[in-house]
Design goal:
Blueprint (H helix, E strand, L loop, with lengths): L17 E5 L13 H11 L3 E3 L11 H10 L3 E6 L6 E2 L2 E5 H12 L3 E6 L7 H4 L5 H10 L8 E3 L2 H14 L13 E2 L12 H11 L6 E6 L6 H11 L6 E6 L3 H14 L9 H13 L4 E6 L4 H4 L9 E6 L9 E4 L5 H11 L5 H10 L4 H13 L4 H10 L1 H5 L12 H15 L1 H11 L6 E2 H4 L4 H8 L1 H13 L4 E2 L3 E3 L2 H11 L13 H11 L12 H14 L10 H17 L3 H19 L4 H16 L3 H19 L4 H16 L3 H18 L5 H16 L3 H18 L5 H16 L3 H18 L5 H16 L3 H18 L5 H5 L2 H8 L3 H14 L1
Parallel strand pairs: 1-2, 1-3, 3-6, 6-7, 8-10, 9-12, 9-13, 10-11, 11-12
Antiparallel strand pairs: 4-5, 14-16, 15-16
Length: 851
């Protein structure tokens, strides 16, 4: 045996002991950053043991003196860190401090004692190393310690304490406490040889069970297939040396639990086969109550009320695995979540080495990192020639059949499909309304679904969703069965059971007598009924749009069978795209605008008002993305059709004319743009009035034309009037108002009023950052304009810093080749003004190359 090795059999992990740390409070805080108590706890952990001290006490109906005595009585080793302060006197024995009482109890019970005394040369604040009130008592206690027949170790720093305490603990023999229980008993199932990850979860479980509280109960809860059972099995095997009794109880059927407990009583020779189960369980609970070092696992328990009367008490450990998260009245809940992505990838690549990291990541993502699904996938991949791509195709096209396979040798009793089918069937039998809600959620995205959205259902389902009590019953049923993650505001279904539920209900009709009301159509109509306010220049509506965005994108997928709701789909696509565009993501909006336009054109024709509206919006987005010629052609066609179909003075026609003028301006045709804007403004003033928002848009656009044609004073006057009207009608923080403010600031700069321009631009930029965000294209335009003001005022360094930030954001948000990104060449001027000619040249060459 190696020198200094603990007296334990080599190759076997020694059992953990409870080490009671006796100390006064200041040693838990001093010195910083590592206190003496912190160092002692590190040493205990390094020796493989668990800490017990006053900080482990929880609320109980007992005096502190009783708690102190009980906690110490349960410990295996006593460690005293004796400082210079006396500490708190015991309430019933005011002439004795807690540390003195603890030392005496340890001595009387014959517990191994390790005493460490702070040396006289230990440095520290006088208030911490000298006790003005009880200093004499403490000094007397310190002098008595060597007379107790102990070897006292002096330390002067936390590091020294940690090193010496760890060595001392390793020299204390790890003897087992006497047990009234017979031998070593275990029926824990065999561990999974391919168990992967979960290290953090297992550590948290161990820490919780060893927290020092009697009869600790930990409930591992989570959805089916997430790995609750395998985690409990792995824990029991990893810590087998710490338990004399480890017993596994299948608990899905509450009526059978008492029989399994009676079997444990028989295994421990506490009863005979002639005793009733109730008598056997009573004897078992009495025996366990007075013992430690036992573990009982109740696997797949679902009813806290049924299990509570059967739980053993005492100093042992109880683990409950359950889909139900509501175990607060019995024990602490510990959620078991999906694998982390690295855990999924590790399992896939370890067992199927032909998978690349990319392939493993794609499979893990498609399976939502659900442990059982990942295990099932890798078993199939290692026994077949399927590639990652082929597996993913099968998952998309035949998810029910694929996940219904139960590979030989699997530690799970049934396939994933079969396990969830049982859950769906039970829910259909016990709570059909809850199954309907779950099915509807399955046809949305695997993201949180706002509960308020479900209130927009039609018919009886909608009435139930709008009834708080009835809907509370539904969400409670789903939550208690672990079938969905339910919060006070959202419900979310994992992508794997969602895919299985979609496969199960693909052809089902949801409304009796309406053959078109399939689940995909119902999901579309739900979102259509619950869509937020119009998103155009309406930031207050954007959070709601952002919340619904993943669901809108999923239900409008062209692979979905939503054709009976094609008109609603086109409208949702268009409105979703408007949200993306106006909130600052025109590139992501483009394919949605294109799909809405194409869908309407193919169904309703090119002259239909809906088609022309979608064409108008698509052209605006093309313009935002710098595709000005495409935007112009589409706007010219849309304007011509609207003039022919509805006439030249209709609001929609004037909108197309206004948008075409923007394209002309962007293409450098400033005079034609001015003429079209002047005509549009005159028509809108006559038809809509001078203060109508659309009229003010035309005034804003005409002012830009005037500036581009060099008529700066006239542009300024028109912008001042437009800004004043918008402030009065829309408010000072409305995006359109801020657009006018930005345009007026440009006019002021053009007229040489640089300080006024700067002040107005600074205010506008601050408002845009607050309302639209720092990365919104309009915000970046404002930042670019402010940089020009700073440069004109000679603040070249500040202008450079602002332009550098704006360029970086535009490159990331809009892309390297977007016109606004290329306009950020103002940075080159700042660099030149600061004498950085080489960088100026490189930036100009890069900009020229991108054009």
């Amino acid at each position: 045996m190696a020198v200094g090795e603990p007296v334990e059999r080599q190759g076997r992990k020694p059992p953990a002991r409870r080490v009671f740390l006796s100390h006064t409070s200041e040693l838990a805080e001093w010195p910083k950053p590592r206190s003496f108590v912190g160092a002692a706890k590190d040493a205990v952990a390094a020796a493989g043991d668990a800490v017990v001290d006053m900080s482990a006490f929880t609320a109980r109906d007992a005096t502190p003196e009783q708690l102190d005595q009980e906690m110490l009585a349960e410990a295996d080793i006593y460690v005293l860190i004796a400082g210079f302060r006396y500490g708190m006197p015991v309430r019933d024995r005011p002439d004795v401090s807690y540390t003195e009482q603890e030392f005496q109890i340890a001595t009387d019970t014959g517990m191994p004692r390790l005493v460490f005394m702070l040396a006289e040369d230990t440095e520290g604040p006088p208030a911490l190393i000298r006790d003005l009130q009880y200093g004499a008592r403490q000094e007397a206690f310190r002098k008595r310690l060597p007379d107790s027949g102990l070897a006292i170790t002096k330390v002067s720093s936390p590091d020294e304490l940690a090193a010496k305490l760890e060595r001392a603990l390793n020299r204390v023999a790890r003897s087992r406490p006497d047990s009234k229980l017979v031998g070593r008993i275990s029926n824990i199932p065999a561990r999974t040889a391919t168990f992967t990850g979960r290290d953090e979860l297992l550590t948290r479980l161990r820490d919780a069970l060893c927290s020092g509280r009697p009869a600790v109960v930990q409930a591992l809860n989570g959805m089916g297939g997430v790995g609750k059972t395998t985690t409990a099995i792995e824990y029991a095997h990893r810590h087998a040396e710490d338990y004399d009794v480890a017993w596994w109880i299948p608990s899905e059927d509450p009526d059978l639990i008492i029989g399994h407990l009676a079997e444990l009583a028989q295994a421990l020779d506490l009863t005979t086969g002639q005793d009733s189960p109730a008598v056997a369980v009573a004897r078992l609970r009495g025996a366990l109550e007075s013992q430690g070092r036992w573990l009982v696992v109740f696997d797949n328990a679902e009813d806290p009320a049924a299990l509570r009367p059967l739980l053993p008490g005492g100093a042992g450990h109880v683990i409950i695995t359950s889909r139900n998260p509501d175990w607060d009245d019995i024990g602490a809940a510990l959620a078991v979540r999906e694998f982390t992505r690295p855990e999924s990838v590790e399992l896939l690549r370890t067992r199927c080495d032909r998978l690349t990291n990319t392939d493993a990541d794609r499979i893990a993502d498609a399976l939502g990192d659900l442990p059982l699904a990942v295990n099932q996938a890798v078993r199939l991949l290692v026994t077949t020639s399927l590639t990652a791509g082929e597996y993913l195709e099968l998952l998309a096209e035949r998810v029910h059949d694929l996940l219904a396979r139960h590979e030989k040798g699997s530690s799970y009793p049934v396939s994933l499909t079969a396990a969830w089918a049982v859950s769906f069937d039970r829910l259909a039998r016990d709570h059909p309304a809850a199954l309907n809600v779950l099915t509807l959620v399955a046809w949305l995205a695997p993201e949180p679904v706002p509960l308020t959205l479900l209130s927009h259902q039609q018919g009886e389902a909608g009435a139930v969703a709008r009834d708080p009590l009835a809907f509370a019953d539904i969400t409670a049923a789903l939550r208690s069965r672990g079938m969905a993650e339910v919060t006070t505001t959202t419900i979310q279904l994992h992508r794997v059971p969602a895919a299985l539920l979609r496969a199960r209900t693909r052809g089902d009709v949801t409304a009796e007598g309406d053959r078109d009301s399939t689940w995909p159509v119902t999901a579309i109509r739900l979102l259509y009924a619950g869509k937020p306010d119009e998103p155009w220049a309406n930031p207050p509506s954007w959070p709601r749009w952002r919340e619904l965005l993943p669901h809108l994108l999923v239900v409008c997928d062209p692979e979905r069978a939503w054709q009976p709701a094609a008109n609603e789909v086109a409208r949702l696509l268009d409105r979703t795209a408007i949200y993306l565009k106006t909130s600052g993501d025109p590139r992501r909006a483009l394919p949605l605008f294109e799909r809405a336009y194409t869908l309407s054109r193919d169904r309703l024709g090119e002259d239909h008002p809906d088609t022309l509206s979608y064409a108008n919006n698509l052209a605006l987005d093309l313009s935002d993305l710098g595709e000005h010629q495409r935007a112009r052609e589409l706007n010219e066609d849309t304007l011509a059709r609207r003039q022919r179909v509805t006439g030249g003075d209709r609001p929609d026609t004037l909108s197309s004319a206004s948008n075409l003028a923007i394209d002309l301006r962007n293409l450098g045709e400033h005079q034609r743009a001015r003429e079209l804007d002047e005509d549009t403004l005159a028509r809108r003033q006559r038809i809509l009035g001078e203060d109508h928002p659309d009229t003010l848009k035309s005034a804003n656009n005409l002012a830009i034309d005037l500036r581009n044609l060099g008529e700066h004073q006239q542009a300024r006057e028109l912008n001042e009037d437009t800004l004043a009207r918008r402030q009065r009608i829309l408010g000072e923080d409305h995006p359109n108002t801020l657009s006018s403010a930005g345009n007026l600031a440009i006019d002021l700069g053009d007229l040489g009023e640089h300080q006024r321009a700067r002040e107005l631009n600074e205010d506008t930029l601050a408002r845009l950052q607050r309302i639209l965000g720092e990365d919104h294209p309009d915000t970046l335009i404002s930042a670019s304009n402010l940089a020009i003001d700073l440069r004109n005022l000679g603040e070249h360094q500040r202008a450079r810093e602002l332009n550098e930030d704006t360029l970086a954001r535009r490159q990331r948000i809009l892309g390297e080749d977007h016109p606004d990104t290329l306009k950020s060449a103002g940075l080159a001027i700042d660099l030149r003004n600061l004498g950085e000619h080489q960088r100026t040249r490189e930036l100009n060459e890069d900009t020229l190359g991108s054009q």
